[in-house]
Design a protein that fits this description.
InterPro entries: EryCIII-like_C, EryCIII-like_N, Glycosyltransferase_28. This protein is α/β, with parallel strands linked by helices and 363 residues long. It is built from 15 helices and 13 strands. The chain has a seven-stranded parallel β-sheet, sandwiched between helices. The chain has a six-stranded parallel β-sheet with strand order 10-9-8-11-12-13, sandwiched between helices. Helix 4 crosses helix 5. The longest helix has 27 residues. The protein is globular and about 60 Å long.
Length: 363
């Protein structure tokens, strides 16, 4: 069998799909990826990757959309853009992907197309070639809603997928009609952790991570955490901080590190503060660690509110990050109990290898 994986041209959108892609290839099938821009730099584990957005730079597209729709852009920066800004932005991206992706499908003739919600054009290319498609959710939002939003750039109705795979645990909105799959929680880079981060320390350990996507809106909690660090009885580890911050000076209880696989570091940590992206959010949930999320741009507000509603973490703007709030994050037993409850749900979800047979049965 030949399977084509389609992701929007953003690194985080592709990494969420890689565990299933690897499982399909490990089962003896041929797998290829269609994406673009920053996702082309992701380590796919040797899976053939095709650029279906040649010359595209996500930042330029986002800036152009913001200039054309300024009120929607400001609402998006505040984390309240809703459908409008996403429709314009991902509509533009999907239009750029449409012709190259259709040509790739015609040329490679896959037996199945798997696409993520913000790459809904994958369903269109599959339908045009008479190939079944599967929608793979990659976050805590409704993937069907996102796919329909992105597809509004095209005339007609979005072709229905043969199945929807959800990575949402039951307590965070998973539909019983969808096929569950344990979410991707790692980063596709080096598997190595710096010495000491793989085991708990003598004091609570707080990880701090920021967004990999440049742009407007609060995506970096680092400075706020640093301002509160002196008041914490904890060791603070800044993951991939901005160069000026890494150069110091830093409080005595603060250290820095470069890229690390968060799924390997989280079990030995006490909690994490981060920008609210889907990958980090799901990783902290899977590890059963309380988290503080910034309710910002894109899906970050929804992620923050969903985690807070489940009791597994805190949703705080940058200005709300204080020593008192961080102390609660590190010590509140109710947060830990709720996070561990969600982790148990995720651990009970089928792994990607379990989905290969059911998905290929649609071909």
């Amino acid at each position: 069998m030949r399977v084509l994986i389609v992701a929007a041209p953003l690194a985080g959108h592709l990494t969420a799909l890689l565990p299933l892609a690897a499982a399909v290839r490990a089962a003896g099938h041929v797998v290829a990826i269609a994406t673009g821009d920053t996702a082309l730099g992701v380590d796919s584990g040797g899976i053939e990757t095709h650029d279906v957005t040649p010359g595209l730079r996500f930042g330029r597209v986002g800036a152009a959309v913001s200039l054309r729709h300024p009120r929607a852009a400001w609402a998006e920066v505040a984390g309240r853009g809703g459908e409008e800004f996403a429709r314009h932005l991902f509509g533009a991206l999907n239009r750029r992907m449409a012709d190259p992706l259709a040509e790739l499908v015609r040329r490679t003739r896959p037996d199945l197309v798997v696409y993520e919600p913000w790459a809904a054009v994958g369903a269109l290319a599959a339908a045009a070639a008479g190939v079944p498609s599967v929608l793979l959710e990659n976050g805590l939002f409704d993937g069907g809603w996102a796919a329909r939003t992105a597809f509004r750039a095209f005339d007609g109705e979005l072709p229905a997928p043969a199945a929807v795979v959800t990575v949402r645990p039951p307590s965070l909105g998973a539909s019983p009609d969808h096929l569950p799959m344990r979410p991707a929680t790692g980063w596709s880079g080096s598997p190595d952790l710096p010495a000491g981060l793989d085991v708990p320390g003598p004091r609570p350990r707080l990880l701090v991570s920021r967004s990999t996507v440049p742009g407007p809106g609060a995506g970096d909690p680092t400075r706020a955490v640093l301002a509160a660090a002196d008041g914490l009885d904890a060791d603070v580890v800044l993951v991939r901080p901005a160069p000026r911050i890494a150069a110091g000076p830093l409080p005595a209880n603060v250290t820095t590190t470069g890229w690390i696989p968060l799924d390997a570091a989280l079990p030995a940590a006490t909690a994490i503060v981060h920008h609210g992206g889907a990958g980090t959010t799901l990783g902290a949930l899977a590890a059963g660690r309380p988290q503080l999320l910034l309710p910002g741009i894109g899906d970050r507000r929804g992620n923050a509110e969903a985690v807070a509603a489940a009791g597994a973490g805190l949703a705080e703007p940058v200005r709300g990050i204080t020593a008192e709030v961080l102390t609660r994050l590190l010590t509140d037993p109710a947060l830990l109990v709720a996070a561990e409850r969600v982790a148990a749900e995720i651990a009970a979800m089928p792994v990607p290898e379990d989905l290969v047979g059911p998905l290929l049965a649609f071909t």
